Amino acid sequence: MKNYCNVTDSGMEDKANGSVDTKSPVENGQLPDPANWGVADVVDYFKATGFEEQATAFQDQEIDGKSLLLMTRNDVLTGLSIKLGPALKIYEYHVKPLQTQHLKSNAS
Length: 108
Hints:
This protein is mainly α. It has a domain at 34-107: DNA polymerase, domain 1 (Orthogonal Bundle). It is 52% helix and 7% strand. A two-stranded antiparallel sheet has the order 1-2. InterPro entries: PcG_chromatin_remod_factors (IPR050548), SAM (IPR001660), SAM/pointed_sf (IPR013761).
């Protein structure tokens, strides 16, 4: 299991309705590259980011790191059978940035 340091995205705000900031695990100052993650690593990542309940959907669908990098917005919103609010946050604040980081690190 990987150890992540939780940091809060400074672009997020605490809401009066009780929603919390989205946390992004960071390794050595940048997002980790999930290309070689197994299903358990993906589940651990989402648990560490505050999506404990939704992490089981990645387990149920056997999403490993390579699958995570291939997921589209529609896959996350409809294919995982999780509520829309958390699904949007998972895609926008985690899946998409992980994909972008992976592409950048492999382009060099």
